[in-house]
Amino acid sequence: MTEIIQKVKNLSIGFKSKKGEEILILRNISTNIKKGETVGIVGESGSGKSTLALAMMGYVKHGLYTIGGECEFNSSNLLKMKNRDLEKIRGRKIAMIPQNAGQALTPNLKIGYQIDEALQLHSDLKEEEREQKISELLNKVRLPSPETIALRYPHELSGGQQQRVAVAMALAGTPDLLLLDEPTTGLDVTTQAHVLELLNFIAKDTGTSMVYVSHDLGAIAQVSDRIIVMYSGEIVLEGPSRDILKKPIHPYTYGLLKSIPKLSLAGLPQSMPGSQPQPGTMHRGCSFFDRCDFSEEKCKSNSPQLEYLEELNTSVRCFNHKSLMNDSQVNQTVNKIKTSLQDKEILNISEVSISYAKQNLLDQVLNRISDDNPTVKDININIKKGETIALVGESGSGKSTILKSIAGLLRTKGGVIKFDQKRNLSSDLKERDPNDLRIIQLIFQNPDESLNPNHTVEEIIAQPLKLYFGLKGEELKKNIKELLQKVRLGEFYMSRYPRQLSGGEKQRVAVARAFAAKPDIILCDEVTSALDVSVQAAVLNLLQQLKEDFGTTYIFVSHDLAVVRAISDRVAVLYQGRLCEVGPSKDVYQFPSHPYTEVLLGAVLEPDPDIKPKLVAEDIVEEKPPQKGCSFQGRCSRILGDICKNEIPPWQITNSGNSIRCHIPLKELQKDQIN
Amino acid sequence: MLFLIIKRILLGLITLFIVSLITFVGTEILPGDACTTYLERQAFGEQLEACYRRLGLNVPAYERYVSWAVNAIQGDFGYSLSGEMPIKEVLGPRIKNSLVLASAAIFIGIPIALILGIVTALWRDKLPDVAISTVTIFAMTIPEFISATLLILIIAIWLEWLPGIVIVPTDVSFFELLPNIILPVIAIAMIMTAHMARMVRSSVIQVMASEYVQMAILKGVPYWKMVFKHVLPNALLPAINVVALTIAWLLGGVVVTEVVFNYPGLGRLVIESISNRDLPTVQALAIILASIYVSINLLADLMTLMLNPRLKTLQIRK
Description:
The complex is a heterodimer. By secondary structure, chain A is α/β, with parallel strands linked by helices. Chain A has 26 helices and 26 strands. The model of chain A has no long low-confidence stretch (mean pLDDT 86). By secondary structure, chain B is mostly helical. Chain B has two domains: 2-73, no CATH class; 93-276, MetI-like fold (Orthogonal Bundle). Chain B is built from 13 helices and no strands. Mean pLDDT of chain B is 82; it is low at 314-318. Chains A and B meet through helix 2 and helix 4 of A and helix 9, helix 10 and helix 13 of B.
């Protein structure tokens, strides 16, 4: 039997509420981490997964305390250890790779110093040796020119580079156990795939054990040998990763897997109703009871124990796992989307370019923007009424910039945005009349920031109703209630404040506010990326339902290609503010594709250990679009030569009506991409 | 970077220009002028005319402003009315005295404030924090004129340790001044120190809760090394601006305290010249106080720029 390096025994962590009650964040967790294995801990926000990972380093956050149990490492309990002894283990035996490296690197210290600090603490190397080691480590995490990187400050690196530095810093102490807390969340899809590949390589290369914490089953599937599924502070399922992803025998995992949109499936995934109970809510019985499709009477009052199944090498916390075992092959059914496409074009975007360049004095006087290489250029899209069109691309691709211009938050440099064939919307927000403002509404990524924390739900939704329709009194109330009903929130939500709502509920309020204006077009800016998967599916389904009811047109911006696949009729792929490919979504997801679309598709992580990401291009960050030629020339693996560098590629149209902007003939693209 | 410094300096000069305009216009609008004040009941007919001619008040206001401004830039603020002596000479020793007072308060107050702020933050919610925080809140809420009066009562009158009121000539030497300034310095420094200590405390607490400090702990960095390398540089940077504001705000405290202690500094001069309607002196004082205010803020901005690597590189890139 392989050696166990970390033993978690009956661990409970919690805090004291204002009333003095003990509220548990982790409830009686027991698990072992073996040498050389990678364990994935998966769960939605609030499931206690990060608290568990931190406890494995003997760290309990300010305000929380250990109620019982231990985390045993080298046969000593980390949670009872003195700080001085912990300092010798942290970074040397157990190292952490944080979620957000941009926040986790000290801003006033150079990269080189921060790695050197770890080396000084955890190795006996002399100064010159350390310097060499720093270069070695930076090389190992595949950062270009380590010597110059070491002299930079954290803010001078891109997100992916910062994450790599964090990995290098963790490796400096040659730890036996690496804890990774959502290490790729917040990175671009392509960067994420590269970082995961690097982590896999390191695990194999050094034989380090890893604990990988994430809400993203796709990422977990790529790295872990074993998976622990957490729900409401408890382990509900633990076993070999292939079995758990292919044949989940716990209803929560089953539902979770079904709610993830897949590249191969068009249509909306099924959502799981309800949400995770808040810590401290009294419950007898199973904590998943009210969201479970398989629940029985006994689940209500008896809470199931974690049961170890010898034949599957799996532990499960469910009375009904046997019935799930027989037919739990995740047969994902999707709700096919109905398109209510009409022939009428509602928004014409032609030759639009947008620039962030500062105007100099002369330009200000002449009221013009002169920038020969604007951030966004040559955008031509005609959007039909009732259509859902998605703009996809990595950060910096200009997708949000285009949304801002349509909403009027950003002036265009050139080109025309026309609504309903006649009304010109190219002008600034200030020059639009109230009706032009009403027809276009925005839903933002993060409802925490887009809802006024000092307004009740009623006030939030009343705002557009009063502003655009001048409603008052009873009629206003009636309308608010109807809208809440539409987004499936009860009337009693009216008096609540945003902080009293869960993430999904907040986003529903934001949706209700957008629909209150009875808009023709709704701009959705990454509306689901701050939400948990099960909630994401519910919000997507809601948006689709509302669209069918009202015939609204959506312009949907997202970096998640699977989500886009699920909801959109048409997709536009952007790179560096230039269009690469536009077409019906089923065709964009098939070859031939623009080489950039190919890169994006290859990097998507599916919750299936058999589908590995294909890394086609390097994840370099380009600061500015190239002056001439194809926008993707800097990263393209299929680059032809001078023609790509000097000439803007022509639009080629495939048989199915997909437009691809590339110099490579379609037939050759198809041949290369299928092989 | 250089461009930014020049821009800040220019903005400061514009501020000073506006302040001078406002004080000039203000003194023009007020009923009566230097001559009517000076001549009192004889202020009519021939004598008034002669006075106007002597003081140059018979030319239009804008001409007087221009000639005043040109002279002021060269350091010549004209003549004080009450003493009939050049304002320059009146101001000189006063500025020195106030400077001694203020800088003593600053040099004692800032280190104490930093130490108190850091101690309270690191021992947050423990005994040292609770004790010090209670005292600082108390010190913050008592206005100078009360604390100054109490100090005089307790230390000078009951205990008779130090002189309660400063009775020295304006141009006294530094060492003779020293025993006299102890009480005023305490009175001024109290509010300022308490205020800064609170700011430093909250800034340090905020940084201690940041992800990079958590990361440093998880990296195994020993506690005090973490405090000095990862916490303090990041926590004290935003405190610089607060300190500058507090110092600028201290100017007001200086005025009050000087009057209570009868201290021969700029503050008392402000009160004296206002009650004497010595308008040229008031004008000069307004400009001087404004320039101190502007230059302290400028200095703080530049220091933040120099010390923050993030701002520095941003400027270079642009």
